[in-house]
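Hi Y.,

Following your request, here is the sequence exactly as I used it, all 107 residues.
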Amino acid sequence: MILVTRKIFRKSFIAMAIFPFILLRDKDLRLNQRLINHERIHLRQQLELLILPFYIWYFIEYLIRLIQYKNAHQAYLNISFEREAYCNDEDLEFLQNRKLFNFLRFL
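Below is the corresponding structure, written out as tokens. Let me know if you'd prefer a different format.
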């Protein structure tokens, strides 16, 4: 389910997947298929890890990457979940063929 809300976003964020929702900063973003696909990939990752462990893993990996890269944006881009989503968000059929726990390939 896609929801539009400006209240939870900082300027640098335009979308976020929090199971079972895709949250968008602007209603026009609903037309951005690549962005929606990116967030749907995150929803699948969240389901695979039974939701709560996904967020724990995401936060821990972010901290590790922050220490590694010493840059918040670089840390974010190198989280395995983000790497999988960014590498495949243009392929609108990716989720139909995606293997279970595919994000592990991006560690």
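The radius of gyration is 14 Å.

Thanks again,
Q.
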